[in-house]
Specification:
By secondary structure, the protein is α+β, with helices and mostly antiparallel strands. It has nine helices and 16 strands. The chain is globular and about 75 Å long. The two termini are about 40 Å apart. InterPro entries: FAD/NAD-bd_sf. This is Amine oxidase domain-containing protein.
Length: about 425
């Protein structure tokens, strides 16, 4: 789920047609960090993130496309960088409006994407490195049994099998084997600061450890410093913001449209458009073409406010006096909410692309669906570059995620955070 996800749709009307495949989260990976570029050159990653060789740029209201190369070399439409005195912690929408997920950073920046969509990337990496993965299970609780005399303790993990939908592209055993052996260390790599906050807070209340060195929040952080970090995590979690993705399929390629990926300049509804079928491994032989539109942050914020009103049943006293929706009612409300997002985004999509067709006569889509991308961004905690991951050696615990840094949203940042956590944890485990 989330940024590294695909939406796979089986076509029940055509048994001979391949499934429709959309990158429903992150549309590409902008490689701007030499450390990440070095990782991509390793044998482990070879071929997994090929370059997306397409036509990119900024789509103006008139229908003209300003090529990406022109923007990067001329520096037009870019905000000036603030001076050191002007630097403040950024919020998720502080980036240039047209600089979608770093697409306009650096003349040498390469846009990459998963060989067959980003959804199978993690599984492919784990398979190449012989990492055992348990799919189709939910972790219900974890518990630390502390060690003695300076030794690491053991983590006990409880999990239960879950049922996957048939549209899930991965082949998952319906009855996964849940491991019962304890673990030497735990890495929290999910995109949820509140989970990390709850676990660390629980350890602060029960652990006998006085200092928690080994990287992360200072050299030898006290319990008070760690408690402050917990509050930072909770503040980040409270700032969670979503996005919407609109997936669209046509019976024929839209040859009239002169781009494969663009930021929409001046749109309050859509931030980025991608021709999914132009990506490596997602080309089609049946003549159909898939597109994905990612909403703007203001549109998603507005839709989320509409959702809160719908679920609460109103504002103020009206909302407080309304009974909570049950699970079935919530699911129905969510479906209506996503359909409303689909209608609005589809209108903007057709309005912007209509200029490429004679008399604005676009073909009708054979499929369209909007999907809410929950927890797309947070107000970042803003730790410095040496704290891409936060680790607590005596607990055998590491926390990673792009929300820990000053910039977030891309798979590159998440990967670098995970690498830092892995490096710290491996150094503990090889100590005599």
């Amino acid at each position: 789920g989330g940024r590294a996800s695909n939406l796979i749709i089986e076509d029940s009307s055509r048994s001979d047609a391949p499934s429709l495949c959309f990158d429903s989260g992150a549309q590409f990976i902008a490689v701007t960090d030499p450390r990440f570029e070095g990782l991509l050159q390793s044998p482990v990653m070879k071929g997994l993130l090929p370059q997306w060789k397409g036509r990119f740029g900024i789509l103006g209201r008139s229908g003209q496309v300003l090529p990406r190369e022109t923007v990067m070399t001329s520096r037009v439409m870019r905000k000036p960088r603030p001076t050191e005195e002007q630097q403040i912690p950024p919020t998720p929408d502080d980036d240039d409006d047209d600089n979608f997920f770093r697409m306009l950073e650096g003349e040498e920046t390469v846009l990459r994407t998963g060989a067959n969509g980003v959804g199978g990337l993690c599984e492919a990496i784990c398979a190449r490195t012989s990492v055992e993965c348990i799919y189709g299970a939910n972790v219900t609780s974890i518990h630390l049994e502390e060690g003695r005399m300076g030794f690491l303790g053991k983590w006990h993990v409880n999990a239960v099998p879950i049922t996957r939908t048939t549209s899930d592209p991965r082949t998952i055993s319906p009855t996964p084997t849940i491991p019962t052996e304890p673990f030497d260390a735990i890495v929290l790599s999910n995109h949820d600061p509140s989970l990390a906050a709850d676990i660390i807070d629980g350890l602060l209340k029960t652990s006998r450890v006085a200092t928690l060195g080994g990287g992360g929040v200072g050299h030898q952080p006290t319990r008070e410093v760690v408690a402050q970090f917990v509050e930072q995590l909770r503040m980040a979690a409270a700032s969670r913001r979503s996005l919407f993705s609109l997936m669209i399929a046509y019976d024929r390629p839209l040859h009239e449209v002169a781009f494969d990926g663009v930021s929409l300049h001046g749109s309050d509804i859509i931030h980025f458009l991608a021709r999914d079928s132009s990506k490596p491994g997602l080309g089609r032989s049946d003549g159909r073409e898939c597109w994905t539109a990612v909403s703007s942050q203001p549109f998603a914020d507005w839709m989320d406010e509409e959702w809160r009103i719908a679920v609460a049943g109103g504002r103020g006293d009206v909302a407080r006096n309304r009974p909570s929706l049950n699970k079935e009612e919530t699911a129905m409300a969510a479906a209506v909410h996503e359909e409303r997002a689909r209608e609005i985004m589809m209108g903007e999509f057709e309005s912007r692309l209509g200029t490429f067709f004679p008399h604005r006569n676009m073909p009708s889509p054979v499929f369209s669906k909007a999907q809410r991308w929950d927890a797309a961004s947070f107000n970042p905690i803003g730790l410095d570059e040496d704290n891409e991951a936060v680790t607590f050696h005596p607990w055998g615990l590491a926390v990673c995620g792009d929300y820990l840094g000053t910039r977030q949203g891309g798979l590159q940042e998440a990967a670098l955070s995970g690498l830092r956590a892995a490096s710290d944890v491996s150094s503990w485990l090889v100590q005599p």
